[in-house]
Amino acid sequence: MLTRAGMTKVAVQRGLMIAALAGLPFLAARGQSNNSKASAGSKTAPVADDVTKSNASDVAKTLKTAAEALGLARWSGVGGQRLPEVDVINTMEIWGSGTTYGPSQSNKPGELGPAFKTEYHAALGYNPPALRVEMTRTSSGAPAPGGAAPQHTIEVVRDTYAWDESEIGGGLIPGKGTATPAMAAVNNRLLQLWVLPYGVIKAAVAAGEKTKISTENGATVISFPLSGQLAEVTVKATLDAQNEVAKVETWTSNPALTDLVTETQYSEYADHGEIATDVKSPGHIVRKQNGHPVLDIRVKMLDANNPYLVFPVPENVKKAAAH
Q1: Which residues, other chains included, contact 91 with Cβ-Cβ below 8 Å and sequence gap of 6+?
Q2: Res 245 pLDDT > 80
């Protein structure tokens, strides 16, 4: 029987071989495919204070550099033949712990809501776009009499479907867990996928000529619109001195989509894999939603060796989405 290390090694080899044979520059940001039906509002987007015109070569060079800084893009060869640079990441798992916050009772930006100590596990894929976030939360305040039971949640999104699972895979097999449709959460959950450093690069490539490069306070900034049902969301990603994605801001001109106004900071990049793969990930992730802190996580481990992950949509979720 293969050990975990052996299985991981096989996964590395399999993932690199598939990527090499594909010979594609980057995986397209498929799944931002359905047009949003909401109308635009009057809010204006922020702009960089030192904007430079971006031609195609500027954009391509910047995205290539950022992808290589993350370990997202690799040169590969079979039989000594050098093949085009390819995107080696399609699926990924992230484990971490820290603090998450409930809704703030104040409208003041930066105001904290109830805090929860949180164990965090995210499984994600980009083709098709899918994300499963499993969290176990306990109150970080004074314990309730008798002790408060941990709150365990599993939130899933795939393409245009969102649901909550009582256990991983719940609702797929009769009698084994449940899947509760959560269609109102589709956009919010999909956005989490595309604001990750890897999602930023993939989506910026997919945006093509709509992607712009500028400078702000001496730092390189990548700006581009998302597409499909996130088409009213614009992303602004700031790179650090190592060309790693340090901050990702999203905004929208539609006042009905204010929950999609986010800011995520990434720092302490390192190879957090159980086996070193040169894929770098942030060690510290801090996210705000509409000005309020929602997550502060320290990454413990990352599996970027294209782990086998599937996100089948339960039939009751499909039926709920059709009505």
Answers
A1: 123, 124, 125, 126, 306, 307, 308, 309
A2: yes
Span 124-170, pLDDT tens digits: 999 999 999 999 999 865 454 445 678 999 999 999 999 999 999 99
Are 281 and 266 in contact by the 8 Å Cβ rule? The answer is no
Q: Which amino acid is at 162?
A: A
Structure token digits, residue 263: 């800011």
Other C-beta atoms closer than 10 Å to the C-beta of 153 total 12
Distance CA 233, CA 22 (A): 30
| 316: Cβ contacts below 8 Å, ≥ 6 apart | 171, 179, 181
Q: Which of 118, 193, 116 is nearest to 162 (CA)?
A: 193
The number of beta carbons lying within 10 Å of the beta carbon of residue 93 is 16
Give the contacts of 133 (CB within 8 A, at least 6 positions apart).
Answer: 120, 121, 122, 153, 154, 155, 156, 189, 192
CA distances from 39 to 36, 236, 286 (A): 8, 21, 30
pTM for this one?
0.80
Give the integer Cα–Cα distance in Å for 150 and 156. 20
- 302 CB burial (10 A radius; 0-12, 13-18, 19+): buried
Give phi and psi for 197, each to the nearest 5: -50, -40
Distance CA 17, CA 40 (A): 44
Q: Which domains does the chain have, with CATH numbers?
A: 87-322 (2.50.20.10)
CA pair distance 82, 20, nearest whole angstrom: 9
Query: Which residues does 10 contact at the CB level (< 8 Å), separation at least 6?
Result: 2
SS3 content of the chain, % helix, strand, coil (to 5): 25, 35, 40
Q: What is the spatial distance between Cα 151 and Cα 88, in angstroms, rounded to a whole number?
A: 35
Of the candidates 288, 223, 303, the residue with the CA atom closest to the CA atom of residue 45: 223
Q: What are phi and psi of 239, to 5 degrees?
A: -95, 150
